[in-house]
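Homework-ish question, so no full write-ups if that breaks the rules, but can someone show me the predicted structure for this set?
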Amino acid sequence: TQLLEQSPQFLSIQEGENLTVYCNSSSVFSSLQWYRQEPGEGPVLLVTVVTGGEVKKLKRLTFQFGDARKDSSLHITAAQPGDTGLYLCAGDVDNNDMRFGAGTRLTVKP
Amino acid sequence: EAQVTQNPRYLITVTGKKLTVTCSQNMNHEYMSWYRQDPGLGLRQIYYSMNVEVTDKGDVPEGYKVSRKEKRNFPLILESPSPNQTSLYFCASTSGLGRGYEQYFGPGTRLTVT
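A: Not a homework solution, just the prediction itself:
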């Protein structure tokens, strides 16, 4: 079983719709990161959250870290085709033990 | 431009034929890692290095070797590849460990072992 469970595994929506993807665990993380990976490329960092309850916004993307630092969510408003990709969460269990979820594969259709 | 490079990008080989995937970073990062990515399993760490001549096993080290003779290079060696090592491999580097440090990933190497 994965330390970090991401849901849904796949998501296909129309341009302009809103969506939320989730990253859940029974473990507590000192920090949690979200990456986006496009086909043929490596993951690229979107955001790092470190404080329980923290909310960060990156244009149309809103990231939230759970109060207990065990889970996180990513909400995208008015999704665009350019948002298509694999979204990975990664939790820092302790220094140098960064664990990745399996990802949510998002497709935004024009 | 800050980057992590990997070569080759694609490789098809046969069982038992030794191969090396190179990785190089130009950011003077101390920490480097190798991951493999498989459907439904996400990124799993194979080996990591905290500095020159310092390497350690990650979650799935069996069948792999690494070396860190120079700060910028961290090659991944498969002495006797097997079909279960068919995967997408990523090299990554970072300037620190733990809270908030960003990992910079290479573009990936898609390996097929027949």
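Now go work out the reasoning yourself. Hint: DSSP finds no helices and eleven strands in chain B.
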